[in-house]
Design brief:
This protein has 446 residues and is of the alpha+beta class. It has 13 helices and 21 strands. 40% of the residues are buried.
């Protein structure tokens, strides 16, 4: 009996220190490095540090409470009511009210909101829509609908999230975010986060290996290289849709020309050469893992048919824009070569430099459930397509009818990945592939 007690005490003495070492610590400054701007692009890192939405997409892909604790729909999803979480304050201690939410949402989406009217009723919000909108809770979790204090100070956005801005950008493109003690979800473990923007992937990885960075990006096309260098990588399934968007006016107002472009793109070469086979080739908006019908959308190149559809037309030079990152510019150049094979003359430039006929986009899958995911993608590209029936046949028809116009041409689904330093603990990713830094901690924090 005494021997068993001694063994139990010995095991406890071994287990307890190990548990203590892995228990999250408060404190410390996390260094994150990015190739672009933390405020730009879909699901931007900086906005998610500072701002919350009425809802949030949970691990199961469904909308969960955030600033709203519950919601109901009436009149066949034409009227929605959301009740705010009580006692929430912004980082400057201002209380969150329904009127502030109305003002914030109106300033964010203006006339492009997916509702026709929004009003405050006590501590709740009432949305009304012309068409049934069964996916409104999912849409409200998106970046476009995060809640901010309307009268922001010169230092930047004021939100209810786990962090707040610490003044303006400092030298060398470094922005600091400090913990928000007023956060309704509780104080984050980290004292601060330093975000270093416009760092090349090569420099990010060198800093991670040298211990000068804790969290860096791993582009999909470099996943294999990161593994070969024995970086600790955390990644998502393929959730980032690479797609080619085309205008339905001007030169491309001719539907035959848009169809010819869709037939001329070489998805296999794009996947194999540019993205090192790290993505899934797709001609559908939703990945096969969500629907099972993706194979019904042909993804093979048909250059002869593309030339036939173009006929004897010699269209004027088309402009194809993509964001200025090296990989996106390289992918755009590859697509331009595809289209030249079909008789189109294409000029590639960076996004925002001029009017474009074509644009290479990255769209993040907004949910892991088919109906809200498809509705979210439609909203992201400005398409007004009501989705009332979650039945796969109805979703397929809605997707097919939209893609048949060839104003959006899906190309690849890509994963999103990050490399983690040795002192960073408990890092998880959102369904959209963003790091959840409110729950992360540093091993060597005091």
């Amino acid at each position: 009996m005494l021997r068993q007690l001694a063994i139990s005490l010995l095991l406890a003495s071994l287990v307890l220190p190990a548990t203590a070492r892995t228990r999250p610590h408060y404190g410390g400054t996390l260094r994150v490095e990015l190739e672009g701007d933390p405020w730009q692009g879909p699901n931007s890192l900086a906005r998610r540090l500072i701002l919350d939405g009425l809802t949030v997409i949970g691990p199961d892909g469904a909308a969960q409470p955030s600033l709203a604790v519950r919601w109901t729909s009436e009149n066949n999803n034409h009227r929605w009511q959301f009740w705010l979480r009580p006692g929430v304050h912004f980082s400057d201690a201002s209380p969150l009210t329904a009127n502030i939410v109305v003002t914030s949402l109106a300033s964010t989406c203006g006339t492009a909101c997916p509702w026709t009217a929004l009003r405050a009723v006590g501590s709740s919000l009432v949305f009304t829509t012309d068409a049934p909108t069964p996916n409104l809770p999912d849409l409200l979790a998106g970046d476009d609908f995060l809640i901010r204090l309307p009268a922001d100070p010169p230092s930047g956005l004021v939100g209810t999230g786990p962090f707040q801005q610490n003044g303006a950008l400092v030298a060398n493109g470094i922005q600091t975010y400090i913990d928000n003690d007023n956060c309704w979800a509780g104080r984050p473990f980290l004292d601060a986060i330093e975000v270093h923007s416009h760092r090349s992937i090569h420099d990010q990885w060198l800093d991670l290996i040298a211990g000068r960075a804790d969290l860096v990006e791993v582009p999909a096309e470099q996943l294999r290289q990161a593994q070969q260098q024995r970086l600790t990588v955390t990644s998502t399934p393929p959730i980032s849709l690479l797609a080619l968007a085309g205008a339905d006016s001007g030169t491309l107002g001719n539907p035959n020309l848009r169809t010819a472009i869709a037939l001329a793109v070489d998805r296999a070469a794009l996947s194999n050469v540019i993205f090192q086979r790290q993505g899934e080739i797709t001609a559908s908006l939703l990945p096969a893992s969500l629907t099972g019908y993706a194979f019904l959308f042909p993804a093979d190149r048909d250059l002869n048919h593309a030339r036939e559809l173009r006929g004897g037309l010699t269209p004027p030079t088309l402009t194809l824009t993509a964001d200025p990152s090296p990989t996106m510019q390289l992918a755009a150049q590859r697509l331009a070569l595809n289209l030249r094979d079909a008789g189109f003359n294409v000029q590639v430039s960076a996004t925002g430099t001029q009017h474009s006929d074509l644009a290479l986009l990255r769209l993040t899958l907004p949910s892991s459930q088919p109906q809200p995911a498809l509705a979210g993608l439609f909203h992201a590209v400005g398409a007004s397509v009501p989705l009332l029936d979650p039945d796969p046949a109805a979703l397929y028809k809605a997707e097919h009818d939209f893609l048949d116009s060839h104003t959006l041409i899906p190309l690849l689904y890509l994963p999103r990945a990050w490399a983690v330093g040795s002192r960073l603990r408990d890092l998880r990713l959102t369904p959209a592939g963003l790091p959840i830094l409110a729950d992360a901690s540093l091993q060597d924090a005091p």
